Amino acid sequence: xxxxxxxxxxxxxxxxxxxxxxxxxxxxxxxxxYYVFLxxxxxxxxxxxxxxxxxxxxxxxxxxxxxxxxxNLVVADLGESTALIPNFIAMFLFNSQYISFDACLANxxxxxxxxxxxxLTLTVLAYDRFVAICLPLRYHAIITMQAMVxxxxxxxxxxxxxxxxxxxxxxxxxxxxxxxVKSYFCDHGPIYSLACNDNYINQMMAIINMILxxxxxxxxxxxxYVFIFGALFKIATWEGRIKALKTCSAHLMLVAIYYxxxxxxxxxxxxxxxxxxxxxxxTSFAKAITPMMNPIIYVLNTEEFKEFLKKTFQRKNKQTx
Length: 321
Fold this sequence. Notes:
By secondary structure, this protein is mostly helical. Helix content is 75%, strand content 5%. A three-stranded mixed β-sheet has the order 4-3-5. A two-stranded antiparallel ribbon has the order 1-2.
């Protein structure tokens, strides 16, 4: 690595390496099986989310505010999977663990952008469920297509602003020591920790990102369900409560699958001394499994999707008879 470090060049007053070395799962026995598993996850994610996107686009009954938000979540799933998994697999297949400085910053932006877009979109969907159950008579007046477009536009703009600022601040760092990134992609924390000048502002941005793009959306989602469960208890019959709760079941599963693995990894990293390979496997699994599971949940736990598929199969059966 010393010969590589000697190729560092001066960019203004900051020293930027021409490339970084993504360590990935170095020296891990049987790592190839995990890469095969990730390849399978990526294919299922790609096919599943493309299928859901096709259904929402072609079926007129899904052209409503709720499914516009779900379509946004599908885009986030596809974006994160594409930004994350192919590069990780390519490192194993082609032994291409070097990535240029600019490409690394682009990879950092897109991975975090689409991951955080999932979190923010889940909050928008929680608001949709809150209005549907707590204010059912005003639902169609509040959750209009125009209102949903405005909310999603704000989500995209806010997510873009925070992450463009975060990534651009990496360019003020000088990297005159190691260029080995102890992660499976251009992760923000492992990269700014390599800097040999003051990285305090980068540490603060990492904390701000976690608060604004992970914890605040999670808290708002939880608050939405506090009000939802409060409204459910006001329904006189158990049948009515269960029927109303079923409309939230798919969203609750999406929230659990997104937040619990990520927060579990963060808590484990803070409380336990995890080996680098265990941390990388846990984080990559948590981020890869969500886009794969989301379309399965849409189809199996959403009444509208099940009704659409049932009608489609019935039409095909009639045509073949």
